[in-house]
Amino acid sequence: MPSLADVLRMPGVARLMGSQVLARLPQGMLSIAVIMHVQSRVGNYTAAGLTVAAFSLGAAVSGPLLGRWMVTLGARRMLGFTVLVNALGTIALGMAPATLWAYLPIAAAMGLTNPPILPIVRSIYPTLVPAGMSSQVFSLDSVAQEFIWVVGPVLVTLCVPLMGSLFTLVLIAGIGALGGVLLFTAGEMRTARFAASDKRLGGVLLKWPVLIAVLTATLQNMSYGAAETAVVGVFHGDELEAGLVLAVFALGSMSGGLLTARLPMRPWSMASRQVILALGTIAAAAIPTVWWMGACLFLAGFGTASSLAVVYNVVSSSLKAADAAEAFGWLGSGLLGGIAVGSAIAGSVIDVAGPVIALLVSGLLAVCAVILPALGVRVLPDLAISSGPRLDTTAIPVIRRPKL
Q1: 273 φ, ψ to 5°?
Q2: Does residue 321 have a pLDDT over 70?
C-alpha cells in the first residue's frame, strides 16, 4: 500500500491539506474559548454549553445546504463570504452584553455561516490521487486535523489567563480569516469543478453506509464535546491543565491515526477502532487528576482519528462524485452537531452532578458509537477490496421501505 509520504508528494495535496487545517484551526479553539468566556461572564456552565450548542446546531443545519449551494453559487464565492461573516461574528460574540440571550443569536448566526471547508476539501481530495490512495489520503487528513485539537485547546488556555477571553476570540477570528484566504487562493480551489446532484436534499442519506457513518461520527463527537466540557469543569480555575489534557487527548488521536493509516479498512473497522476510545474515556473518570486523565485520554485518542478515517472513506466510496459535497456537508453537520449536543448535556450534568459524572456520560456516548456500526457491519463496504468515489454511472443500492 502507498505510504503517507507518497500521498503528500501528489501535486496539490500538501498545499490543500495545510491550508484547510489552518482555516479549520478555530474549530479546535472556539468551543473551549466560548465555554470560558460565557462561564466567566454569566457564571454557570449551562449557559456556556447552550452557547456552544447554538453555534454547533446552526452549523449542523447549514452544512448540507452549503454543500449543495456551493455547486451552483461557486465554492470560492461561498468560502469567501462565510469566512468573512464568521470572523466578524466571532468578534461580535466577544463584545456582546453578558447575557445568554445576547450570546445565543450571535452563536447561531456564526453556525449558520460556518465555512463549508470540510465538504469542499474532501470532495476535492479523491480527484488529486489515484483510487488506490483514497484510504491513505483520508487517513492522512484525519491525522492532520488532529493538529487542530492539539494546538487549539493549548493556545486558548494560554491566551485566556494572560490576555483575556475577548482577545482570544479576536485571535480566533484572525486565524480563521488567514486560513480562509490561503485556502481561497489555492490552485486546486480555482480549478475544482463540482458536478450538480440530481437527488433531493437528504437523498444521500438513503445509502446505509452513509447513514451509519454520519450517525457514528455524530455519536463520537457527542462524546468528544461532553469530554471537552467535563475536562474544563474538572480543572476549573486552572485552564492550562485543562488545555494540556485536551491536547494530550488529540495527540493520542494523531498517534493512533498514524499507526493505523496503512491497515486495511474492513466492515468492522469503524466499530473496532473506537473500542479503546470508549474504555479510555470511562477509565479517565476514575481518578480526576492531570496525570491519570491525561494518560487515559491519550490512549482513548487512539480510537478517534483512526475511526474517522474509516468514516470519511466509507462516505466517499459509497457515493457518486456528484453527491459527495452534500454528503460531506451532512457529515460536517453530524460532527459539529455532536459537539453541540455533547457540550450542552455535559454542561447541565456538571451543574447538577459534577464534572466526573459528565465524563462518564462522555464514555457512554462513545460506547454507543461502537454499538451502532457493529450492528450495521453487514451493510458497510470492505474498503480493503475497493475504495474511492463511485463513477457517476455506478448503481448504488438505497434504503427501501419494507413491504406491508
Answers
A1: -70, -15
A2: no
Angle at 269 between CA 130 and CA 342, to 5 degrees: 105
Q: Where are the alpha helices (DSSP H) in 235-285?
A: 239-260, 269-272, 275-284
C-alpha cell at 328: 460531506
The dihedral region occupied by 45, where left means phi > 0, alpha psi between -120 and 50, and beta the remainder, is alpha
Contact 154, 244 (CB under 8 A): yes
Residue 118 gets the label, from left (phi > 0), alpha (psi -120 to 50) or beta, of alpha
168: pLDDT strictly greater than 90: yes
pLDDT at 166: 92
Higher pLDDT, 325 or 377: 377
Is 367 a residue whose pLDDT tops 80? yes
Q: Is the pLDDT of residue 298 over 50?
A: yes
Measured over the CA atoms of residue 386, residue 387, residue 392 and residue 396, the dihedral's sign is positive
> What does the block give as the cell for 96?
456582546
How many CA atoms, within 13 angstroms, populate the side-chain half-sphere of residue 167? 10
Instruction: Kindly state the DSSP code that residue 236 receives in the 8-state scheme.
Output: T
Mapped onto helix, strand or coil, the DSSP state of residue 314 is: helix
Given this model, what pLDDT does residue 75 score?
79
For 119-169, strand residue ranges (E) read none
